[in-house]
Amino acid sequence: MTKLERFAQWSVFVLVAALVTMAPLTASAAKKIRIGIIYDLTGPLAAAGAVPASIGTQIAIDMVNEKGGVMGKYMVESVKGDAQSKPDIAINEAERLINSEKVDILAGIYSSAQAVPLSGKLDALKQFFWINVAISSAVFKDKNLKYVFRPQVHSDQFGQTSTDFLAEYSQKKMGIKPSQLKVAIIHEDGPYGVGVASANKTGAEKHGMKIVHEEGYSLTAPDLSAMVIKLKRARPDVILHTGYNPDITLFLRQARELGLRFKVLIGHGAGYGQIDKLVATFGKDVDYIYNVDPVAAQLLDPKTLKPGVGALTKEMVRRYKKITGAQEVPPHTSMGFNHTWILLNNVVPTAIKKYGGWDSESLRKAALDLDIPVGGTIQGYGIKFAPPGHRMAGQNLRASPVAMQYVGGKTYIAYPTAIQTIDPVLPLPSTSPYAAR
Amino acid sequence: MGIFDFYLLETIINGVLFGGVLALLALGLNLVFGVIDVIWIAYAEIVMVGMYIIYYLNVVLGWPLVFAALASILGVGVVGLLVHALIISPLLDTPPINQLLATGGLLFFLQSFATLIFGAEFRNLGLSMPILQFFELYISFSRLLAFGTALVGMIALYLFLTRTYIGTAIRAVAQDREIMSLMGVNTRKVYLITSAVGGGMAGLAAILLVLQQDVHPFIGYTFGPITFMICVMGGLGNLLGGFLAAFIMSQIISIGSFYVSTELAYVIAFILFIAVMFIRPEGLFQRRA
Fold first, then answer.
1. Please, what is the average pLDDT of chain B?
2. CB atoms B254 and A226 under 8 Å
3. Is position A27 within any domain?
4. In the predicted model, what is the mean pLDDT of residues B172-192?
5. Domain presence at residue B128
6. Quick one: A282 and A411 in the same domain?
7. Residue B91's domain spans which residues?
8. Are residues A48 and A111 in the same domain?
9. pLDDT > 90: what percent of chain B?
10. Is the peptide bond before B90 cis (omega within 30 degrees of 0)?
């Protein structure tokens, strides 16, 4: 055997050995689905629900991976991004995850102020984008987005739920006709607050309610006392408030100190969804306050849901409490978990089986095929996305929020009446420092 | 609205009390700039450190609030001293932009450090302050306390600077640091004492802020810019100027909020600030030594 032949033999041997060794690596690399998850892990929004949502999201990913991944064979690898409560950072993080980390899917997003610019940008890039928490209707309204999907409720529904609830119970519980009800609308001035407030206004006008005051303010305003004094002057029966966290606690504190009285206070998610924090700060003062939000899954009766969904909720609650040590599980955890679970168990498998992979185009088609009836998810609502050409293309048309009431540190469903777990208490009882006298 | 608007009166009174909070915040920052000619961009974050000290000692370790508050003044005083010794002192003879960037770095360091230790969550003392009611007029007790403390703090600082030996030395260095150095004064010692007193003032502000606001790693975003604006508007380094500018700013915000809206009131305040910078770049009240 010549030297050349021996060299050729060794070369073939090395090549074959290399291929044999690398084959499993290549296959396993191909099986991984990389998801970029962006939430506000730091900054003022972190404690207003973004962190519980990110924990819920990770629980869903962990549970899928524990079963061997999507369809039992494609492991999910999450790459985290911290938006730091700033829209510009959220955009930078999205670019990093797409360009450097080469993620297949972008998901998460707590803040509407981030969701609005990101959705337009990512849609133009034809990047599949799955919004778990942010609610602003402006994300989709008249934009005809093709690659952005949101299983979550949108802000128009938040605003209308509170006024529909008031219309049903105002006369019955307070003896005030809806047309005589005096309503004040206050909100933080980002897309989230403005979106909900605008729907509050539409809803109040629909029911003929009197809007006696309407005002926006910056999330980081150091003082809200002038707004509180104006509310005192306007003497509303009901205050509809949309805010995050530092502003909500500042408002409630200053309202108490300055003697603001009202009959009903309805918050709309974010800071109002964090009952543990509210109770730790204000104790019994937050009793009988309402919060409109997608329901925290553990509050629903599992018998009203598809078989097996209740067990899923139980597992999510168990893991969340174990991770955080919290007593109450906020609605944001359900949002993060539920929507990620649907993405990994319904959308991605369809994309692979029917459309051949998890590229943005296949995922988009699979999302449009999705058809989950009411009762099919842990938060009760079903999922059917508005198709291209629809005014809200990409928005889940079957999502709906509920009105919850806090009593004794516990959360109860007050509205819709069909699923309520408490007979709503209104007006505020005289034990409340905010009760009208 | 009648001839006498009761709610406007309530707004003005609350505006004055809010001014007390801002004035207290401006005092320490102005003192440091007036003497050392250095701007602590991270001043609001140093106040945050004081708020966390009170929270930790009072809520976690169960110390009485008074002792936790005193520890905040001392603790933040030490922080002020360290800021000067470790960050400012090595950069004193370099261009001012270096000092600005260094304290800017400190700002991000303190935010991240607080996030690491306490998490991003909002913390508070869980205190329910008494409500002061005179007929239909409500006054925030915590703000009244802040207002009184700001007045006492201002007077105490004035007496310290005018009636004590070290205070006189601080004023002398503020007037001309080079000459004083040539005359044998240990300017390094004067700077350290000034930084400690500036830090102590931040600790004092922290006590009153923690009674009204939740503490979180990013509270500096709420109070940092407005404190800086007040100091510039009053004339950087002018203690009395900063004190008065705090009340001017708080009244613009309060009355603007009352007549127009909370959002626009801040816009009006910022426009006024820009106008002042154009007309009197040295501030409304010229800097005095």
1. 88
2. yes
3. no
4. 84
5. no
6. yes
7. 6-120+139-279
8. yes
9. 47
10. no
pLDDT tens, B184-215?
888 888 999 999 999 999 999 999 899 888 89
* CA torsion through residues B42, B44, B47, B48, sign: negative
| Residue B134 covered by a domain | no
Considering only CB atoms, A229 lies closest to which of B11, B221, B261, namely: B11
Give the CATH number for residue A173. 3.40.50.2300
Indicate the number of domains in chain A: 2
- For B64, other C-beta atoms within 10 Å of its C-beta total 10
Structure tokens at A63: 């549970």
Q: Looking at the predicted structure, is the pLDDT value of residue A418 above 90?
A: no
Q: What is the pLDDT of residue A7?
A: 59
Cross-chain CB nearest to A257 (options B115, B121, B131): B131
What's residue A25's pLDDT?
44
Compute the nearest-CA separation of A85 from chain B (Å): 10
For residue B251, the chain A residue with the least C-alpha distance is: A226
- Cβ distance B218 to A41 less than 8 Å, yes or no, reads no
* Distance of residue B272 Cα from the nearest chain A Cα, in angstroms: 18
d(CA B139, CA B136): 10
Q: Nearest CA to A344 among A55, A39, A68, A50? A: A68
Chain B residues within 8 angstroms (CB to CB) of chain A: 7, 10-11, 14-15, 18, 112, 115, 119-122, 124, 126, 128-129, 131, 133, 136, 138, 140-142, 212-214, 216-219, 221-223, 226, 250, 253-255, 257-258, 261-263, 265-266
Q: Which amino acid is located at B193 in the chain? A: I
Q: What is the pLDDT of residue B131?
A: 81
For residue A419, pLDDT over 90 is answered with no
Q: Give the CATH number of the domain where residue B197 resides.
A: 1.10.3470
Domain of residue A280, residue span: 156-293+401-419
Residue B285: inside a domain: no
pLDDT of res. A13: 62
- Which residue is listed with tokens 């939000």? A293
Amino acid found at A243: G
State the pLDDT at residue A1: 53
CA distance A105 to chain B (A): 27
CA distance B224 to B218: 10
The residue-averaged pLDDT of A319-323 equals 95
| pLDDT attached to residue A24 | 44
B249 occurs within a structural domain: yes
Q: B222, B227, B249, B266: which to substitute to probe chain A, counting the most A Cβ within 10 Å?
A: B222
Which site among A51, A85, A220, A223 would you substitute to test the B interface, given the most B Cβ atoms closer than 10 Å to its Cβ? A223
**pLDDT of A397 above 70:** yes
| Planar angle of CA B107, B94, B32, nearest 5 degrees | 50
What ipTM does the predicted assembly reach?
Answer: 0.88
Tokens linked to B278: 């154009």
Distance in angstroms (rounded) separating the CA atoms of residues B167 and B170: 5
Chain A residue nearest residue B257, CA to CA? A226
Q: Are strands A129-131 and A148-149 parallel, antiparallel or unpaired?
A: parallel
Provide the 10 A C-beta neighbour count for residue A202. 13
